[in-house]
Write a structure and sequence with these properties.
The complex is a heterodimer of chains A (623) and B (255). Chain A has 623 residues and is α+β, with helices and mostly antiparallel strands. Chain A is built from 20 helices and 9 strands. Chain A folds into 2 domains: 443 residues, no CATH class; 121 residues, no CATH class. The model of chain A has no long low-confidence stretch (mean pLDDT 79). Chain B is an alpha/beta fold and 255 residues long. Helix content of chain B is 36%, strand content 24%. Chain B is built from 8 helices and 10 strands. In chain B, the strands form 2 sheets. Chain B has a 6-stranded mixed beta sheet with strand order 6-7-8-3-9-10, with helices on both faces. In chain B, strands 2-1-4-5 form a 4-stranded antiparallel beta sheet, with helices on one face. Chain B starts with a strand and ends in a 9-residue tail after the last helix. Classes of the chains: A alpha+beta (623), B alpha/beta (255). At the A-B interface, helix 10, helix 11, helix 18 and helix 19 of A face helix 2, helix 3 and helix 4 of B.
Chain lengths: 623, 255
Amino acid sequence: MTLFSLAQKNIQQNLSNYFLYIASMVFSIVIYFTFVTLKYNDEISALTGTSQRVQGLMNASSIILLFFIVIFIAYSNSFFMKKRKKEVALYSLLGVRKQKIGLMLFFENLVIGLISLVLGIVIGFFMSKILLTVLVRLMGYEVVANFTFSGQAVLNTVVIFSILFLFTSLQGYRVIYQFKLIDLFHAEKQGEKMPRASIFAAMVGTILVGFGYYTSVTDMFTSSIWRFFTVLGTPLLVIGVTIFGTYLLFHSVSVFVLTALKKATAWSWRGLNLIGVSQLLYRIRGNAKSLSIIAILSATTITAGGGVFGIYYNAESSVRLATPNTFMWKGDTVNLPQKDVVYNEALNVKNLRVDSDFAFFEYTLLKESDYNHLAKLQGLERELHVVDGSAILLDVMYDERFSHDFTGEEFKLANNESFYVEKMYMESVLNFFPAGTVLVVNDQEFAKTTAEDLVMQVVGMKNDLKQQAVSKVIYDQLSPEQQESFSSVPQSYEDSMASVGSLLFVGSFLGLVFLAATGSIIYFKILTEAEEDQAKYAILNKIGVSGKQMVKTIAGQVAVIFGAPLLVGILHSAFALTALSQLFNMDITKPVIIWMLAYTAIYAIYYVFTVRSFYKIVKQGAK
Amino acid sequence: MTPLLKVQNVGKVYGNGANVFTALSNISFEVEKGEFVGVMGPSGAGKSTLLNVLATIDTPTTGDIVIGDSNLAHMKDAGLADFRRDNLGFIFQDYNLLDSLTVRENIVLPLAIAKVPAKEINTRVAHIAGLFGIGDLLDKYPYQISGGQKQRTASSRALVTEPQLIFADEPTGALDSKSATDLLERLSDLNKSQASTIMMVTHDAFAASFCQRILFIQDGQLSKEIHRGTQTRKQFFQEILQVLAGIGGEVNDVI
């Protein structure tokens, strides 16, 4: 029997053992191939290629993606090798040379790699087709996704994964050469020393994470930390500090809490609590590391997804905030189709010019009666009544950090007239472009003010995001000068979708991958432990523990391993997103909460599956 | 007095169709409360299968097993687990201690599962640890103690719930002769002082000589039964050797 056929037979007969390994390989290849296909796809590059930033983002993403795939494959490979150690030991005991065993494992890896590559690329092809359709929709384009098999993508995937497989095969060689026969037979570690809680580590961890949190919520424009480490350095510092602090905290606090729980005999000596706590404590070293990895992965996913989803979610509302009227332009009215039109008005306003030392600003003076009329048409509740000599300011671009608050001050005009600014609102009834900041005065004051008279057309439509055609009809009738002052909701929306959409595309894809990777890492980790724990649960079954009680303790243990990093990840990302929303100056609470709930829900599905598989493995052991 | 354990026509068949193997056939016997019974026989005779079936870890193909007034043959999985918890104690050849728990916690475990209050657990653990001479080891982990100490821990765990019936499967199989003698003496003392009922499977005539009665199994059937009566342990040991020689058992194992 040749070595190759032995390897072949090995795979055929241990198919169930190999299944998980092959599945995880295929999974990685599918994800990578899909991403690469999309990257090389002509239509996608036509859509995103115009922007250098998006290209850069795609490249950066594929590096992050690769990084994850390496971690993931390393994880499943070590899981797989652990299972094989005894088999290898047996060959060695029977007198097969290490070199030959190594060669056999190498062949095996080659066969597995080949199968996974073919499967992965085929599945990946269909996956990318589906994904492309979905994502093009998300970007708001109406193109049909049809694309061809990309040879470049196949080549890229094959090269990358061949290197990876070569690496894992060499890893197999290393395992064989490094271990002595006796170690191979006792692959499962025996009697690991119980860790002790270190107060020092807990304190350092708390300080580090606290510093990270504090820095991320401080105002980045005034904080001395941000000034010292610069806008580029500070986020890196915060990320590094938080990762290290998380690890220390998991390491020390978990030991501390578990030891305390174990010592509280009134609780721990009740049913299987003792088993649950001891099992977690027993593995705490490995756990601390993987729990921190999972927490950081979750935090990254939630932050990236939340941020991107937040921007996407806000794209419409920021368009609406700046453009309350579907269409607006300076000058005369034009012919437009009457379908869906809610109002079509001409407004007489005045253009104010205010000179300051450095520049001049243009403002639009609006009559109180016009304001109230428009507000009613737009469905605004607010009605204004301004007293003589006063004005109300409408400034949608107001930002407390940069803008000057005029409330309670005299607002001086170029012709030395002035208004007392009674109040300021951040919603306007006129589109910011072309009207700018709006001053509302009562009708008598309006008549008295000397300034350039202007006519502005405002049109409101139902279903405004879809009125591209009407937008075009109007645009074509305007003079070139008027065209410059034309603002349109559908056009602004489409423009912002095109830039945010590609961001969303990369963000959501990576989010999906990270989520799958995180879930799968936990799944693998816990199932490895389940295999090691089989004997323990068999003992428990013998001393009279029913299946129901076992499920309960398993569910509890797994819940800790899933729940702790999720909570920490959510907390981390909440702080990161606070900084992000500060940077972009928008309220992303709602989309972030939606995204966090979605993430938790998918995560919960992984949890249920893991508990079920765990119990299945344990039950097999009890037979 | 009604017997504690009543075994009637128990049989166990593995496999199905043409490919069947009969591990046990038509075994019947009774065990009274407070007895120390040994089960002996050559390898493959069905000793361990019998013990597993009696211990509810395996189910018999035919026949009835009655412990107290429960018929185990008609019980469901969950019921069996509860029954094991409340009525049976186990000592295994490979100890079956949980290595993530200390000695104390290993002994606590069955009491915790039975929801005994923590205070009472403490006194009971201290008591049983004293009986087996492991009071000083309670806060050590299994990997820190010797095989003999492990087996005494396992025995403490089996006995701490004061079960009606204790099953021991080759408890001295992995022990050196001194530790083995020590353990057997403690078991036999407990049997006398607390009237615990013990059923022990062994292929070692020396270990068997601590029992009061020995059942011999051959090819899945009960072949012979001997009583110690008033004999000394040494005399009984000789008798066992003779029986084993007669049924072609593993006399070699003894030396």
